[in-house]
Design goal:
By secondary structure, the protein is mainly beta. The chain has one helix and ten strands.
Length: 191
């Protein structure tokens, strides 16, 4: 029954008409999905996860101003939302190398990343279980207030489902404001 309350769609962060990443969340984790550019060996991609910071890119090309081109591909550098981005252009695709602060802290020992079918899947374990994230990256791609409220309601129902596995909360609805799943009735039990 818990799978009925799993995220049913991913949220997208789009900049300049280009999808930068997609993401979703559960009570205890945030998942980020980044489409990888073609013709770059998978062993060159990297992801460094820290408690409040994430760095994603192509090895040998750190996100600093002295980045060089890869295989004579043009490189653009632009400044957006207080961060420098390095954009590698491949045929019909761009890949952004970036360093960003996370919206909320994560547990680094249980966060990880994988490469699956040309997608970098980053799983961030929330430090504060039940906290509703409006975006994984600080200052970028925030959900609108209505969507944030829907996410909070879904997480609250997911919490009820985990605490009461014999019941089905998949059709339950809230009338009025939804409480914070992290703090409601003394917070989430970690039994």
């Amino acid at each position: 029954m818990a799978e009925k309350l799993a995220p049913d769609k991913r949220h997208s962060f789009i900049h300049g008409g280009q999808k930068v990443f997609e993401w979703d969340q559960t009570l205890d984790e945030v998942n980020i999905y980044i489409t990888l550019p073609p013709n770059v060996p998978t062993k060159l991609f990297f992801c460094k996860i820290q408690a409040k910071h994430i760095e994603v890119g192509i090895k040998g090309n750190p996100p600093y101003l002295n980045v060089r081109c890869i295989d004579n591909q043009p490189l653009s550098i632009f400044y957006y939302l207080d961060c420098f981005y390095f954009v590698f252009f491949f045929p019909n695709v761009m890949f952004i190398v970036s360093q960003h602060d996370l919206t909320c802290p994560v547990k680094t020992d249980s966060s990880f990343w994988t490469l699956e079918d040309d997608i970098m899947h980053i799983t961030l374990q929330k430090r504060d279980i039940g906290q509703t994230w409006a975006s994984p990256i600080l200052g970028q791609g925030h959900l609108d207030p209505v969507t944030t409220d829907l996410e909070q309601k879904r997480l609250m129902l997911q919490r009820f489902q985990e605490e009461n596995p014999g019941f089905d909360f998949s059709q339950a609805q809230f009338s009025g404001n939804c409480p914070d799943p992290r703090t409601f009735m003394g917070g989430i039990r970690n039994d």
